[in-house]
Predict the structure of FumA C-terminus/TtdB family hydratase beta subunit.
Amino acid sequence: MKENRINHIILPASKEIVKDLKIGDIIYISGLICTGRDQVHKKIVNLVNNGRQLPKNFENLKNSAIYHMGPIVKTKSDGSFQIISGGPTTSARMNPFQNTICKNLNILFVIGKGGMQGVNWDKLPAVYLQFPGGAGAIVSKFIKKVVSVEWKELGPEAAWFLEVENFGPLLVAIDTQGGNLYMR
């Protein structure tokens, strides 16, 4: 029986680390991540497909992570933001966009729930990490700060750039070697 490994990964990470991860491994990540649901994915793909430049904040995501999440956000009295809750949303809605997102943003980790289909995990390379549904309230404990937000007019569907520390446990549910917990 395979022993699952626990990995603490600092972002940005190397592609070699991602290629070494296997389904069932548990990871915790620290560093900059971005949230993105349907509207963010559509907006990014539309900009890329039309040869337009993405906002500067997205340059900081190279070898980092995107989290399929629509947070509950509080605006504090000083104008800064606080994430109150941030559970994962169903990732399957992002299936048509994920290859373009990962390739153009150089994303190594996709975080969500429910799995994904049609993504070229081996060619990107990237892995799919599952965060438990129903655990949104504890996400705020991992967020050190909200760094910035793009497309704030999208509300919770905006792209929130978050500095996280020991965010997890995240389960490697789809790896770069074809391992997929959803297809067993």
